[in-house]
# Entry
Amino acid sequence: MFKVKIAFAALTLLLMVAFAHADNIIYNNGGPNQQNGNEMTEWVQTEDFTLTSGQTISDIHFWDVDSGGYAGSITWWIVGDSGGNPNFNDILGTGNLDVTRVATGNCLFFGCEYEDSWNINPLSLAPGTYHLALHNGPVSFDSRSEFYWETTDPNGTPTGRECDLTSACYGSWNDNGQEHAFYLSGGVATTPEPGTLALMATGLLGVFSQLRRRR
# Structure
């Protein structure tokens, strides 16, 4: 029985190596600069991102500055582009959930900084321009709470767009004049190449040969 357990452990290890899970940053708009932010409770805040090749998004990460106004969840959307503005007639993914929030230890004059992240169902996107839209809490929550999407340094891409939930929103967008800190990552299970499969087979044969010789 002990020998069988050894063989099983060896097989498990080889499979883990062969089918390693890649979790890569597929778009990075920049990290937080502790300078500013745009309120995202009364407002829906958005940032554009452009993919030069097809990608699968599985995780969203951004930084907020919070003075105690976190509503307990974040509503997010990934939508298409319409002349440089978010196109809410082309919603590709959305959800509302309590996210993982990690305090960074940096505090600004209007609140303290947190890194927020969450997983989404893998979303495959073709090359093109899209928009990430964020709101603090459910969309029914539209009272300003001093919860901000933190800024990053200018990076040559268009600045963010925003709409006021207390008036016309989703179809009327204003330039908020800032770049915001976020990145998107994707995870795809990689299929073993023929050489990797051959290595697996050789390793397994070696394990079982050793077991046979020790009987």
